[in-house]
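Pipeline run #58 for the internal structure catalog. This entry was flagged by the ingest filter as a single-chain record with no existing model, so it goes straight to prediction. Upstream metadata was stripped on purpose; only the residue string is passed forward. Reviewer on rotation: M.T. Logging verbosity set to normal.
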Amino acid sequence: MMAAAQLKPAEQAKLQMMQEMEIEMMSDLYNRMTNACHRKCIPPKYNDAELGKGENVCIDRCVAKFLDIHERIGKKLTAMSVQDEDLMKKMGQEAK
């Protein structure tokens, strides 16, 4: 892998932008997951300062499902993107 110092300034800027987008996307995923699982698993009126066993189990399952679905969607979108690229290449070759 090429060190960042060996990249051209434009490539460094692109890499930094991609890293910032990745951080933003992960932050968004975490916030959406936290909000969804909190709403689903923790009652609005707190009876105790600590999570109960049922709340802990619910949160564990919610997070696992949320991340599983996120991964499945990511794989599907990647596959669709590859198919689109292949189709565009074929269309470009047929036009010649």
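catalog note: The helical segments are 9-41, 53-95.
catalog note: The chain has a mean pLDDT of 88.
status: ready for reviewer M.T.
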